[in-house]
Amino acid sequence: MSKSRKLFTDSKKVTPSGVNSPVRYFDPYPFFTKKANGAYIWDEDNTRYIDFCNAYGALLLGHRRKEILDSVTKQLSKGTLYCTPTASEIELSKLILGNFPSMDKVRLMNTGGEATMTAIRLARGYTKKKKIIKFEGCYHGAHDSVLVKAGSGSAHNGISVSDGGLDEVSKNTLVVEYNNIESLEKTISKNKDIAGVIVEPILANMGLILPEKNFLSDLRKITKENNIPLIFDEVVTGFRVSPGGAQEHFGIRPDITTLAKALSNGFTISAVGGKKEIMNLLSPGGKVYQASTFAGNPISVSAAISSIKTINKMKNKLYSKLERFNLLFSTALDDMATDMKIPHQINFTASMFQIFFTHKPVIDSKTSKKADGKKFQKLFRTLLKEGVFIPPSQFEVVFLSDAHTENDLNKTLDAYHSALKSVKN
Fold it and tell me: What are the coiled-coil residue ranges (predicted)?
């Protein structure tokens, strides 16, 4: 019996379903990780995998990045948690604001879900209205306001609205189709109580779905015309798409932005930032309450400072390298699947890609769900046998990191070739 199988059996006795997050489970059991370094991850049986999950996008710079570990080690010698303000929090906030000009002020917190929850609360506090518009398939965390027709593990497990969620809360969440401006305009015209619109500018929790031309600019225009705060959930895309996230890439300035994941390259931290007239509503100065014992903890803050400084220092080489790798890889993968006459679509941008087994372009949640999930599971299992780890769900994204080399990509393409053969058969 493998160590992972035994550990999973033990884990199920003490942890619901044996995992601490639904996205980590896959049949018949997930492997348990022993260590990681650079572009690689090892399970408890010492099997090495090339890691293309990268903590669901958090590890833009790869595992155990030296600059970040050095910074954290230095901070560890000074303490782990103070629950008082620190100078490093100001330094980090200035770095974030420097990369995201749409923000006048920023508050640090812990998780992406906490950041989006606070962003929505801010929008409601600012407008004194109740309803939030989200887009089908976008995932903004596991709290009631946004856990409605969401992506990620919620979509993978077929949960449209979570049990235990309050109808009184979810009824104030209006869901429209991603990439469908007409649907948005119609919803806004029928509802005068819209507090905000929240969106993943690049949908990365339904597989990878890109915004169609003018979708984001039209979204910005419509929300401005109707005095509705626009929230960009850049938990995934922040720093990963560009140093200033998707908003820099597309030239759009939202009113509120949420960040997490690549902000600290693997340490627990998130942030919400935006216009000062909105951000100043946060307590204690304002009446929108948000608080956390671990917010701005010096360990994560030191990691985030180092992460942003490293990204900014090498940004020209970093993003061009990842884009070049992704273009080469996605093109080669497309050629292989075409040669094998396997119906497929490949969506890719920056350092993210996903393959869907379907004839039709994948442009929203509905077209994503029509892709052949069973074929994707075959692909995933074969890749794992070949020593390549990607997220186990069709509704996630494959992530490149700076640690990946051309040799890693070539080995991974060989693994995908075998995986596509298994799908064809």
Answer: none
